[in-house]
Design brief:
Two copies of one chain form a homodimer.
Chain A lengths: L11 H7 L7 H4 L2 H6 L1 E5 L2 E4 L7 H13 L2 H9 L26 E2 L2 E2 H20 L13 E5 L6 H11 L7 E5 L4 H9 L6 E6 L6 H17 L10 E6 L12 E5 L12 H11 L1 H17 L9 H15 L4 E6 L7 H13 L17 E3 L11 H6 L6 E6 L9 E2 L2 E2 H18 L16 E6 L4 H22 L10 H12 L6 H9 L3
Parallel strand pairs in A: 5-6, 5-7, 7-8, 8-9, 10-11, 10-12, 12-15
Antiparallel strand pairs in A: 1-2, 2-15, 3-4, 13-14
Amino acid sequence: MSLEFKNLDKTTSYTSLKNKSSKLSLKEVLTADRVKSKHITVGGGLEYNYAAKCVNDDILSDLQALADEQQLIPKYKELLNGAVINTGEKRMVLHQLTRAQLGKDVLFEGKNQRDFYTSQLNRIRKFVSQVHSGIIKGSTGKAFDTVVQIGIGGSDLGPRALYISLENICNPAMKAHFISNVDPDDANAVLSGLNLETSLFILVSKSGTTQETLANRNFVIEKTKQAGIKGFNPSAHFIAVTSETSPLAGSSDVLDSFYMDDFIGGRYSVTSAVGAAVLSLAFGYEVFEKLLAGAAEADKLALETDLKKNPSLMDAMLGVYERNILGYPSTAVLPYSQALSRFPAHLQQMDMESNGKSVNRDGEALHYATGPVIFGEPGTNGQHSFFQLLHQGTDIVPLQFIGFRKSQIDSDPDYEGSTSQQKLKANLVAQIVAFAKGKNDSNPNKNFAGERPSSLISGEQLTAEALGALLAHFENKVMFQGFVWNLNSFDQEGVQLGKVLAGKVLAGDDDMDPVLRAYSELLAI
Amino acid sequence: MSLEFKNLDKTTSYTSLKNKSSKLSLKEVLTADRVKSKHITVGGGLEYNYAAKCVNDDILSDLQALADEQQLIPKYKELLNGAVINTGEKRMVLHQLTRAQLGKDVLFEGKNQRDFYTSQLNRIRKFVSQVHSGIIKGSTGKAFDTVVQIGIGGSDLGPRALYISLENICNPAMKAHFISNVDPDDANAVLSGLNLETSLFILVSKSGTTQETLANRNFVIEKTKQAGIKGFNPSAHFIAVTSETSPLAGSSDVLDSFYMDDFIGGRYSVTSAVGAAVLSLAFGYEVFEKLLAGAAEADKLALETDLKKNPSLMDAMLGVYERNILGYPSTAVLPYSQALSRFPAHLQQMDMESNGKSVNRDGEALHYATGPVIFGEPGTNGQHSFFQLLHQGTDIVPLQFIGFRKSQIDSDPDYEGSTSQQKLKANLVAQIVAFAKGKNDSNPNKNFAGERPSSLISGEQLTAEALGALLAHFENKVMFQGFVWNLNSFDQEGVQLGKVLAGKVLAGDDDMDPVLRAYSELLAI
């Protein structure tokens, strides 16, 4: 099948959708039967339920037509086969390949890419086993009991969110910490609580030149010098996760290097060596393998053409409908699981950095809305916070709920006739219904208009497999939306200008923009 | 002066603003002189700089007219004097009174409210001093070294954000933890790292009936029973912060109770006993006093009628201009300080719960946009994440930067010619300029349109005084915006429906809505 790349507003199915008459009433649409029938298997034991989305079969069939017209599944297949989908940087996009071989063999300069990724994971598996068994020790002869990831953006948010998600359930072999911000207060605060002799640091930077990460490496090394520990050798406490061509690769300053490449963007790198090293050191490689298995399952389900059987495709198309037809500018992610407390921050990066674009894949200006603002906090916390605006504010914000039948830790006393987990779940389902159906009250201040759509991803328990599927579900959703909008979800040119200007400030450039100089003086740089 | 309450769309100054011709160019507006001149003292050593906001003197004078027409300062003064500004719940609004007496004496049932708040703070001061000196000990005779706040929403977000903000600089006397979510994994994770014998728990609930907080209290008590510590008496390890009429007040299950009242909403309660107990136990009461002093300074500056001299008024009016004239639906809060990592979550609650309303103060429907979505993460982290959308997305998101000349911890080695703090600041100013002025590039994918407005709150260092002023600045901004929109910023009816429905689920009501039942079955409640 030959692929055709069209802007959304050039498709016939989008025009058809836009010309539909007025919006449906969610209050009328949402029935018990719908709750029982409108769900799709996500992988990892999860289900995607879209009963509380404001669509009927007619709209879904238009969305299917749009998905077909924009060739979402053929494009995904070509991505899996190694097509240059990242048009801006002229690169393949291979994060799914870290999980499984779903397409043809992908070769780059004669090298099989799947073999490359698995070989790196195998090297990590071996390294981790040597650390855990005490074969590899710190420079003063003590076993490592702590791992510190130094990285920023994708090298930080995804691995950190996943570490927090699994910390309660996976019984860490090593405690993990993260240093990301160039703010010296970040590194100082993390380091103040550490035993340097038993700490292993992971430097994560694809280019090996990320300003924040190198500054924080230097920061750590200076701290170890100040500590004056007899016999301490910093290079025996660092490993690198980087590309083979980076200055960090195989450097004598690190104990070992593990490799990623240009075909996996930072925000999609959790299932590569970037997440593998820290998560395997923390939980053991077998936990990381389960994460991969869950993600692979979700990737495979995303190959299905029928959106009623493809959860990430359905999620993507419903999001496009809400963004481009209904005009909603943001989406809230609401996990009813404290373990997912930083998962919204990961999705915020993954989605907003991927699809926050104004040009199409060929660099031409787009004249329709693309990626929305993504934000969120765990429930029930959010209920006592920003949910007020979600219920009664003047804008409608679509909601992505996530919840589990069981808690991670099996210790949950009864209080007033129910456990905490039951209370948590009761609140979750109550919110879905409250948002959708509202409540009429003669006092307008206590009136709930309802009509606020949501979807629910649910499962038995937040395990490594479930987490892997959850991660991949959203990656694939964002990929499909990028295809609908005909943009390149895999570059991030928007982060460059700030770096250049910051460099000018630090260099004290004589020809610095006077405005930039004035701000620099204000902050006494 | 008699007060008049008008909807925004009934004011003549709003009509005048709406009829202005096309939008200004920020690229043209923003000059070095403007950076040097467009700033206002915030209090606590901070400055509010609005050079990079897309307004000229003409628009500012319209905004001043609107502020005058909506009587923002007279309304603030009446609030300070004890007017019933919370019309929905028919209550006074007195959080500023915890900081200073800026208006007339406020009496309630013959009681002077300022005396009431200060008497509670004095009781906390004394209690804290007895804990720190070891006069008050745990039930097994060990000194307390840890404090755990159990609360949700305003009893959690503000105190937690402020604790994190000061942890590095204030040398905690006691380590603080927070349990908020009803998710049992939250309480289990926090408790697993604690020594119960040396832990003091603070139950924070105004009503004394908050479901999550009572469930978590029970959770902690069950854990202490399971621990089977000889001689352990839970009631000697709990204090309460609650209203005088709540079931927790003076209960034999707590060591002591400290009081708040109905005139301080949860999201405005950090400077009341709610924040005082945990922050004073952590850092000493003198640190809390500095926080109050910074907040009081900001409150006083908010009395100024001229918006060019009143930072929270200016911030409020610029926000209204961006929301109602320019139509921007969200605002990002971007502190370049890791210590402020949870401050955006606090502002998210404070702003969205206050002004996420669709009815005016008299309960009549409004026909214009009110409170925006608020989200944010610290820089430079955000630069490697969602900043892509902020720079090149299809929607414009106004930005609130926050930064400091000095870091909190004075240990910052040089790397490649600059310290980490210099790099942090250089990135901050670079971003402001990149967002405002953009960059033309013949490659549209590398083109930055600019025209993305921001403001900057900056100061020497994030101290307790600065933090107090920062807190009050945003509280007052939100209050002024509520007055402009003619809504009640001080109730939260939108959180009620979910509670009612959750109660039905937990009670297993026979007449439960079939949709609610279907969702309940899905999650096996």
